[in-house]
Amino acid sequence: MSAVAGVGGEERSDYTREESREIRQRSLRLLGSLLRPERGRLIGSALMIVVSTGAQVAGPALIAYGIDAGLPALVAKHSSFVPVGVAFAAYLVCAIAGAVLAARFTVLAARISQAILLDLRTRVYRHAQLLSLEFHETYTSGRIIARQTSDLEAIRELLDSGITGLVRGVLYMVFTAIALVWLDPWSGVVLAASLVPLAFLTRWFQRRSQLAFRATRVYSARLIVHFVETMTGIRAVQAFRKEKRNEREYGQIVEDYRDANARAIKLYGLFDPGLIMIGNITVAVVLLIGGFRVIGGGLAIGALLAVVLYTRRFFDPMEEMATFYNSYQSAAAAAEKISGVLEEEPSVPDPGHPVDLWKASGGVDFDDVRFAYRDDRVVLPDFELHIPPGQTVALVGSTGAGKSTLAKLIARFYDPTVGAVRLDGVDLRDLHPKDLRRAIVMVTQEAYLFSGSVAENIALGKPGASRDEIVAAARAVGADEFIRLLPDGYDTDVNKRGGRVSAGQRQLLSFARAFLADPAVLILDEATASLDIPSERLVQQGLTTLLADRTAIIIAHRLSTVAIADRVLVMEHGRIVEDGTPEELIGGTGRFAALHAAWRDSLV
Amino acid sequence: MLTTRPSRPDGSRDLGTVRTILRLMPFVRPALRSIILGMIAALLAGLVSLAIPLVLQNLVDGPLSTGDGRQVLPAALAVLALGGLEALLIGARRRFVLTPGTHVEAALRNTLYRKLQDLPVAFHDRWQSGQLLSRSMSDLGLIRRWFSFGIVLLIVNVITIVIGFGVLFIWSWQLAIVFAVCSIPIFVYSYIFENKYSVVARRSQDQQGDLATAVEESVHGIRVLKAFGRGRYSLEKYVRQAEQLRGTELDKARAVAGLWLWLLLIPDVAFALCLGGGVWLASQHLMTVGDLFAFFATATVIRFPIESIGFLLSMTFDTRTAIDRLFEVLDESNPITDPDPARTVSHPTGRLLFDDVHFRYQDSPESVPDLIDGVRLELEPGETMALVGLTGSGKTTLTALTTRLYDVTGGAVRIDGVDIRDLTREELRRHIAMAFEDATLFSASVRDNVLLGRPELADPERKADADRVLAEALEIAQAEFVANLPEGSDTKVGEEGLSLSGGQRQRLALARAIAADPAILVLDDPLSALDVDTEARVEAGLRRVLGRTTALVVAHRPSTVQLADRVALLQAGRVTAVGTHSHLLATNEHYRFVISSLDDDRESPDLDRYSDDDEEVSA
Ligand SMILES: Nc1ncnc2c1ncn2[C@@H]1O[C@H](COP(=O)(O)OP(=O)(O)OP(=O)(O)O)[C@@H](O)[C@H]1O
Ligand SMILES: Nc1ncnc2c1ncn2[C@@H]1O[C@H](COP(=O)(O)OP(=O)(O)OP(=O)(O)O)[C@@H](O)[C@H]1O
Ligand SMILES: [Mg+2]
Ligand SMILES: [Mg+2]
Fold it and tell me: Is B15-330 a CATH 3.40.50.12160 domain?
């Protein structure tokens, strides 16, 4: 696998030639695959623009005709308005057709580019959701946000201005060139000769701007990473007076980004006048040759006028094309990053041949499992555990022992390095993802609320749940009371990061979520840590009914949980050191007995 | 045509486009000179390109009609020179304008960031972070691009058009009048366009912000989405939002298309009329063929500027919207500011007084009483006070008031008798260090995270001090696991670093508060994620610190309460009782309800008592 596959080497700026080609091709493939579904519309719009541009390009020819044929006819003895009239009418028809079509085309182009953007947005979002936690933990949220915002923005810019500009520009130039050759092949030759320096200039720009735009993508992602981190941690930032230091760090990235942008823009600032220069020189040469030929009688004055106008017009869209090319380079750099994310394979992949499990009974087995987040630090060495259906297991142990890790393996946030975790005898890796998620639900240590109403947040446990179900779930965990006291009850907007409810209330809400989900296996990872004692009691009361016929793994530091457990596991350094019923363990002389006694003493 | 504004749906202050844009003046001033120079260069370039037809006219009327071949070469050379000059001038324009544009953008970005960091937590509660992000990235990018070419091209093109019209008059006033009259509808339509477009432009940018918020939440909440297998569900929601944005963008495109139609049609109609009229005029010898030639050449030159007006106008209105959105944040008044002149407490003893403190959140309905409704509580120097209360009773809120993350809405918080609002925030936050409920670590090494409150120790000369403080804080917080991290205390943690377990994060956050060595420590439920053993050891360590520091410790568990000298009970927005743990336990019913997991009659620790607990609650 190459060093730049996926998001590898994303921040580097020293790609070898092969690497550079590889990621550029990946980016082009992405852009190509985005355009493909829009083929039909693209062709339609191209036709539209053919006619429209053709109509507009006809202008100078008609003027030439008007002057060369119309004027003599008018001043002739039997003066005739016909040629002028024809030129006038034709010009008008062309004008109207050209303008109407161009306007329609604008809308059509927007349709195309919006369809493409929607497609891309959906793809990236879906893929980000598909990627496993392992990826998210190393890639950081800021970066994945950057990919979905500012990088998409770069592509959007290309589509917005670009497509219209490109199709119009190319056709305009092609038509103009055809008209020019048709009017006067010699001038056509001059025009063709001008394409040579043009090609060199473009190649130069392409190379340099590729580098420059890559740098802008890297820095914009860093900006976003820093920005997001500051805004999410604003309380800590302020409380620990990190503002000034942040300003310096952020200011540095802002400057890097500015500099990268300035470099990219400067390149364009050379490219664009270069194009104009080539264009103007060509016009002068055409004029020179044409002028001599008019004198020599080889060319009519009207034709010279048309030829010069055409040559000039040929270069008119150049500026637009250059802009397009510039946005294209920027978008391609962004697409390089996006396609990298899309290329990442989830390390916890969906099964190729999923096994259905319609009705899980809830038996969980760890068979010879070994697990490490990073190769050098094994968290669970050689782990063996069998939980029969319906059992409620309390998992205790000192912090960092690997309890959450165990829970995350059951929820298949990660796959074991060695061995297998099974539900009802089916390896989780083979289980249909839908069945897996329906059967196993985990309430995580961090209670996260999404913006939206309280009801919507609870309903996340079961989309489409009725209001009654939602209220029942809230009531079961004792959240109903405080929810009703909120300004709009269940319809209160929790807004940002659940900042609007207290930590304990947030936990209650995520508890209610799990209640609603009604899984066969429920994992609670310190889901009551921030609750006061009365609320905790209510939750436990709810749990006794909820857990009656399902498997549960409850991780808690407060040993009160043990009361509702059938079995207690004590974990140390990734191993289970004690395993038994609460009575056995408390009655024994092991670690748990000591822990429990200490905890008992702390109670009042 | 740029000065009138449709009233916006949100009814915010309504400035004209020009005046809105002028608000950026302070940021643009350093770049102004170059921007003007750039405009001059662009203008000259425009003039030069207008001069080229002049040469052509002379050529057609002169040498070509007389057949004098000697004039052709100089004329072509003149065209060449002018063309070269045009390219150079355009190059100069870019040189002048582009780099200053990036400086404007950078200055705005830094200002916005500074402002956001300065604004109080209440502001951040109210604003979705995606909206802030989209302002900082895409809106500012838009502004830069507009300054780099939007404004320049707009002004230059308008001037080019005006001058072009003037030149047209020279060639033939009759035709020029035809051309001018034909252009009137463009102005009318531009006006209509502004009204239509501004509304959708605003909507589009807001929807982009919402989309950014959705993205951000989907990433931050990824564990929940995964745990419930709701990736698809959230995707559907996201797609619905993205489709709305698409609708808005199409509305925008339709508005632009409407304008474009006129911008393309009208010059062409004018051309057609001028063609007919021109030929006729020429036939009447009212103008020469050369004049006609030049007339069309000139008209061709101003065609592109006219067409470009459509794009430039929509860009201008987009920018105006971006500026509006930017100033919505920059104009936000900050109620929590440093006083002038500020008082100072040079050697705080750590006496913390809540003096009849009232507080309510900004948007809580009128009908509910203050959340903190007259709290009176005094912490003696060196005393450890536990704060106990039910979930949602306002404990976290009360702790946030001490460092002015929120300001009291009534009464005062005092340190050594000085109202904290009379201190600078910097000083206040040096005297008080906090550990929050959720342990926020930043993407930095363990060392930097723990020493966050001690910027002065970053000095390499004081490395020994820094090491000592770090080691001590880690030791007290029982964060010995740090030694086993791959690079010890230099291991990067936080989002960009190693992920830690919940209890490990919490201990680092605690160590951070301790390392700050404040006069007053405020710890919000600091041991919630620790197991019984570790908790006991941390408590032992904390006791040593708390002996010399005033502390306010929010506690849910009796074990934490035992750290404290006295306990304050928060109930219905007031501190209803203060006393030692055993005293309150004996005398206060509510306290027993909040803190006790045992029945009144303590029985031997066996298991059936849990069911009794349940009954007690349900009773
Ligand atoms: N995502 C991760 N990447 C790398 N290492 C991790 C990750 N999550 C946890 N660890 C490490 O694995 C070990 C076990 O962590 P785990 O979260 O399972 O502990 P825990 O028993 O749940 O502790 P706590 O009670 O503090 O929550 C810890 O040493 C921790 O630092
Ligand atoms: N940012 C906020 N804006 C509006 N209301 C809020 C905000 N934060 C908290 N609240 C409300 O204020 C009340 C008190 O919240 P607070 O976080 O202070 O409680 P707490 O005592 O710390 O509870 P817990 O023990 O659960 O942490 C709650 O009802 C909550 O809904
Ligand atoms: Mg854990
Ligand atoms: Mg709290």
Answer: no
Residue B62, token pair as written in the block: 């002169």
Strands A418-423 and A426-427: antiparallel
Q: Which residue has the tokens 């020019």?
A: A180
Domain boundary residue among A288, A307, A342? A342
Q: Is B583 exposed, middle or buried (0-12, 13-18, 19+ CB in 10 A)?
A: middle
Give the CATH number, domain containing residue A286.
1.20.1560.10
User: Looking at the domain assignment, is residue A353 inside a domain?
Assistant: no
Sheet holding A392-397, edge to edge: A440-443, A521-525, A551-555, A392-397, A567-572, A575-580
- Decide if pLDDT at B609 tops 70: no
How many Å apart are CA B409 and CA B429, to the nearest integer?
20
Q: Shortest CA distance to A553 belongs to which of A514, A509, A589?
A: A514
**pLDDT on residue B2:** 35
CATH of the domain at A423: 3.40.50.300
**B189 part of contact set with chain A, CB < 8 Å:** no
Domain ranges of chain B: 15-330, 352-440+519-608
Report the predicted TM-score, pTM, of the whole model to 2 decimal places.
Answer: 0.89
Query: Can you list the positions of beta strands (E) in A68-171?
Result: none
pLDDT attached to residue B354: 94
Chain A: give the shortest CA distance to residue B19, in Å: 27
For residue B393, the ligand 2 atom closest to its alpha carbon is: 21
pLDDT of residue B68: 65
What is the whole-number distance in angstroms between the Cα of residue B395 and the centre of ligand 2? 8
Question: Do the Cβ atoms of B179 and B168 come closer than 8 Å?
Answer: yes
- Beta-strand pair B410-415/B384-389: unpaired
Instruction: Note the CATH architecture for domain B352-440+519-608.
Output: 3-Layer(aba) Sandwich (3.40)
- Would you say B561 and B568 are in contact if contact means Cβ atoms under 8 Å apart? no
Counting the structural domains of chain A, the total is 2
In a domain, A3, yes or no: no
Q: What is the predicted pLDDT for the residue at B66?
A: 67
Could you tell me how far CA B545 lies from the centroid of its own chain? 39
Given B137, B250, B434, which is nearest A149 (Cβ)? B137
Residue A323 in tokens: 């802009």
Name the DSSP letter for residue A442.
Answer: E
- From ligand 1's centre to the CA of A125, what distance in Å? 27
Distance CA B409, CA B357 (A): 8
Are residues A186 and A305 located together in one domain of the fold? yes
Peptide bond connecting B339 to the previous residue in cis, omega within 30 degrees of 0: no
The verdict on residue A106 lying in a domain is: yes
In a domain, A355, yes or no: no
Q: How confident is the model at residue A31 (pLDDT cuts 50, 70, 90)?
A: confident
Tokens of A61: 């020819």
pLDDT at residue B69 in the model? 64
Q: What is the pLDDT of residues B154-204, one digit of tens each?
A: 888 888 888 888 888 887 788 888 888 887 888 888 888 888 898 999 999
Please calculate the CA angle B128-B130-B132 and round it to the nearest 5 degrees.
Answer: 80
Pocket test for ligand 1, best of B491, B500, B510, B533 (most atoms within 8 A of CB): B500
A382-432 residue pLDDT tens:
889 999 999 999 999 888 889 999 999 999 999 999 999 999 999 999 999
Segments forming the whole domain that contains residue A519: 364-602
* A168 and A67 in a common domain: yes
Q: Is A532 found in the same domain as A410?
A: yes
Say yes or no: A528 and A475 in one domain. Answer: yes
Kind plus residue range of the DSSP H or E element containing A572 = strand A567-572
A283/A411 same-domain check = no
- Domain shared by A102 and A154, yes or no: yes
**Do A307 and A393 have their domain in common?**
no
Nearest to B392 among A114, A374, A482 (CB): A482
Asked if this assembly's ipTM is beyond 0.90, the reply is no
* One domain for residues A149 and A241: yes
Q: In B, residues 463-482, which contact A (CB 8 Å cutoff)?
A: 481
